[in-house]
Target: Beta-1,4-galactosyltransferase
Amino acid sequence: MDVPAFSTSMAIAKGRYLLLFLCVQLVVMAFLYREGYRKRVSYFLGIFYKGPQVAVTTNAQNTSLRGDVYANLSLIVKLAVPADSLPYCPKRSPFIGGPIRVALPEGLTLADISRKNPYVSRGGRYQPPDCESNHKTAVIIPHRNREQHLKYLLYYLHPFLQRQQLNYGIYIIHQAGNNTFNRAKLLNVGFKEAMKDEDWGCMFFHDVDLIPEDDRNLYSCEKYPKHASIAMDKFGYKLPYKSYFGGVSALTPNQYMKINGFPNNYWGWGGEDDDIAVRVSLSGMLISRPPVKFGRYRMIKHGHDEGNEQNPRRFNLLAKTRRTWKQDGMNSLQYTLISKEFLLLYTNITVDIGSDKSVKRHT
Ligand SMILES: *[C@@H]1O[C@H](CO)[C@@H](O)[C@H](O)[C@H]1NC(C)=O
Ligand SMILES: *[C@@H]1O[C@H](CO)[C@@H](O)[C@H](O)[C@H]1NC(C)=O
Ligand SMILES: *[C@@H]1O[C@H](CO)[C@@H](O)[C@H](O)[C@H]1NC(C)=O
Ligand SMILES: *[C@@H]1O[C@H](CO)[C@@H](O)[C@H](O)[C@H]1NC(C)=O
Model:
């Protein structure tokens, strides 16, 4: 009699374990689903990503200690010597002040910004009037229908870069027409067009809605491709996942060519930044990052973007990067330059980059 009773209780125990196991499965799946694709992408990248782990901390800084980004710009004055006999700038700029107070001024006009930045010349170019800069940086900003954001960014970026004593230029890459937005391809165009103007030593690829909050976040390049926007307010001043490469990043022309530039086939929002991170990894480089205290950014809020819907193909594309990155990039870039205007605060490059050929249109 004992034996069957024993096996019955065994069966019940087994059944309970099975039930428990299924419950745990369900909870895990629900969790993964909620965390969304970012986590899955992160896992996928994590398989071959061996970059440095960044310890992220949320540090709520005392905002009353933050400085005005224009605070000591008036200390920068022209030296009374010929331009070719200027001394080199010091290793660390004396005008760097640390945390910057970001408040979006109302009624701001481009003319106001020009007035506040008297040493900026046509095309949005600048070099320190008192020393020879050690760095030549081009800032490339993909753009369409974001004039208000652009104004705020220019208001902060110009004095920010001057405080770092950089020789710099700001390029807006404007996608003409109404086809789906393609951030990465616009950045490829920006790289190519900017290099025609000048032998830039460093390219900063910059989203239009991100304002840097600390001028110790240097806009110069490193030994490895740099991801600068590691602490955005939108993500609680933390990296959303380990291999995140979106927002603001920087590469030297050599690093850029080594990864064959950026992909041209990501139409719509998302995925292209992960593709770039994979390219960096596949070409044997790591990702460098500024300290978390410095890489802070404030994101300007905006509504839904017409013509920049989520890209439904991004996972498929990402899964193929390993096979496609050498064929798709700078070596396959095609576009039509519509205009190049050297405006007061930036160079406006307007391009026709075509449309997504892979989407079948039902007409
Ligand atoms: C922030 O710094 C100011 C000036 O040092 C100080 O008076 C204030 O108490 C600080 N606030 C907080 C919340 O620490
Ligand atoms: C520039 O301004 C910051 C405050 O934003 C200050 O800490 C720093 O000392 C200033 N630098 C110079 C050279 O005046
Ligand atoms: C783009 O869309 C706007 C508004 O819907 C329209 O006025 C304009 O003609 C379109 N441009 C092109 C090139 O189709
Ligand atoms: C850039 O130039 C194009 C073509 O002239 C124009 O439509 C667009 O508004 C300009 N964009 C900016 C941000 O200046």
Notes: The pocket of 2-acetamido-2-deoxy-beta-D-glucopyranose (ligand 2) is lined by residues 67, 71-72, 75, 94-95, 97 (CB under 6 Å). The radius of gyration is 24 Å.
